[in-house]
Specification:
Helices cover 37% and strands 37% of the residues. The protein is flat and about 60 Å long. Strand 3 (87-102) and strand 4 (107-119) form a beta hairpin. The mean pLDDT is 87. The longest helix has 29 residues, at 124-152. The protein starts with a helix and ends with a helix. By secondary structure, it is an alpha+beta fold. Strands 1-2-3-4 form a 4-stranded mixed beta sheet, covered by helices on one side. Helix 2 packs across helix 3 (124-152). It contains 3 helices and 4 strands.
Amino acid sequence: MKKIKIYIILPILILIVNCGYTPLLDTNQINFYIGDIKLNGDRHVNNHLSNNFKKHQRNGTNKNRYDLNISSSYEKSIANKDKNGNPKNYTLKLKLDVEVKNKSGKINRLSYEKKTSLSAQDKKLRENELEKKYKKDLANSLSKDIIFYLMSQ
């Protein structure tokens, strides 16, 4: 049994090490930094976005500077109800309207939106915890989208 595992794991490890894999967000390949960030909208979402952008706020010498103006909106709506009219599922939607200003003064306007569903829980405390987790996950995903956009400029 151990030999079978070794025969499976060893070739996979060799392929991964030798294939030239590099992470997409490798800090050596980032050619930009974020100067000013103005955040409007949902406070919790903005806190998560701010934390995700902190490592990209270091001033670099030969790097492109971008200023961000982000307006966030978060919406929780009932997706469907049971026979009694109680919510069974919710739709969580996070929308970001982003203005990216480069160092030459050109402004690009972008809009990002992500949705996810949340099933209603018997205990509201558990439901609130899950909602906070999903909100954080949505904010992290959208901040990565913004970083990928900035990397491609």
